[in-house]
Amino acid sequence: EPEVTQTPSHQVTQMGQEVILRCVPISNHLYFYWYRQILGQKVEFLVSFYNNEISEKSEIFDDQFSVERPDGSNFTLKIRSTKLEDSAMYFCASSHGTDLSGNTIYFGEGSWLTVV
Amino acid sequence: ELKVEQNPLFLSMQEGKNYTIYCNYSTTSDRLYWYRQDPGKSLESLFVLLSNGAVKQEGRLMASLDTKARLSTLHITAAVHDLSATYFCAVVTQGGSEKLVFGKGTKLTVNP
C-alpha cells in the first residue's frame, strides 16, 4: 500500500539551529500538509500546500517556518532558528484532492524533533 | 473558529465490554475523520464520514455522524486488548479548507 515517508525519524538539535524535515508524499497526491504534535497533546495543523504554493497556514506557522517542494517527490519543512518549544513530533500528510467523495488524508510516521 | 471536543479523554475498559467515544464540533463541517494512534506511531485512518446519518463499520468499531447535532460517535463492541490506542476525531471545516482540526484524543486501554 502506498505510504507517506518521512526522514529523519528522530533529530536532536541545539536551540537556534536550522532544521529541515523531509517527506515523500504518496505519488499521485496533490495536497500536502504538515502537522505537529507536542508530547501528550493533540495534533495541530501547521500548513497545507497545493500547486506549488501554500494554500493555508495556522498561527503557529510563523516566519521561522517554511515549506518547499524542491522536486517532483519531496516536500520539506524548514525551521530556521529552533526554539525549545518547537520540540514535537512533526507529521507530514498528503491527499489526492479536495473532492467530497471521502478524500482520505494519509499521515507519515512522523519526525520527532528534540530541541536542547 | 472550529472547536472539536472529545470525551472521555481516558477510557479503561474490560475485554468483551462495549463503549462509545463522543466527538462534538462547533461549526458546520464537510467531513469528519476518525484516526487511531499507537504510542510513538503515526495516525492511522479509520473512517471518513461525509453526510448526516453516515454509519461505517470495520470489525469491532463503528462510527456514525449526526451533522445536525454536530456529533460523531465511535462505538466499540466487545473490546479486545489490540484496540488499546489513542483515538482522535478530526473535522474539516466547510468552504474548501483542507485543514483538519483534531480533538484531544481518547486514550483507550482495554484490560484482559
Strand content of chain B: over 45%
Count of individual helical segments of chain A: 0
- Please bin the fraction of helical residues of chain B: under 10%
Q: In terms of structural class, how would the helical and strand content of chain B be classed?
A: mainly beta
The general outline of chain B is: globular
Strand-pairing-aware structural class of chain A: mainly beta
* Helix and strand run of chain A: EEEEEEEEEEE
Helix content of chain A: under 10%
* 3D shape of chain A: globular
How many β-strand runs of chain A?
11
Strand content of chain A: over 45%
Structure description:
The complex is a heterodimer of chains A (116) and B (112). With 116 residues, chain A is mainly β. In chain A, 0% of the residues lie in helices and 49% in strands. Chain A is built from no helices and 11 strands. In chain A, the strands form 2 sheets. In chain A, strands 2, 4, 5, 6, 9, 10 and 11 form a 7-stranded mixed beta sheet that branches. In chain A, strands 1-3-8-7 form a 4-stranded antiparallel beta sheet, with no helix packed on it. Chain B has strands at residues 4-7, 10-14, 19-25, 29-37, 43-49, 55-58, 61-66, 71-76, 85-93, 100-102, 106-111. In chain B, strand 9 and strand 10 (100-102) form a beta hairpin. Chain B is globular and about 45 Å long. The model of chain B has no long low-confidence stretch (mean pLDDT 92).
Annotation keywords:
heterodimer, A: about 120 residues, mainly beta, seven-stranded mixed β-sheet, four-stranded antiparallel β-sheet, B: about 110 residues, six-stranded mixed β-sheet, five-stranded antiparallel β-sheet, 11 strands, about 60% strand
What's the helix and strand layout?
The complex is a heterodimer of chains A (116) and B (112).
Chain A: E1 5-7, E2 10-13, E3 19-24, E4 31-37, E5 43-50, E6 53-57, E7 65-68, E8 75-79, E9 88-95, E10 106-107, E11 111-115
Parallel strand pairs in A: 2-11
Antiparallel strand pairs in A: 1-3, 3-8, 4-5, 4-9, 5-6, 7-8, 9-10, 9-11
Chain B: E1 4-7, E2 10-14, E3 19-25, E4 29-37, E5 43-49, E6 55-58, E7 61-66, E8 71-76, E9 85-93, E10 100-102, E11 106-111
Parallel strand pairs in B: 2-11
Antiparallel strand pairs in B: 1-3, 3-8, 4-5, 4-9, 6-7, 7-8, 9-10, 9-11
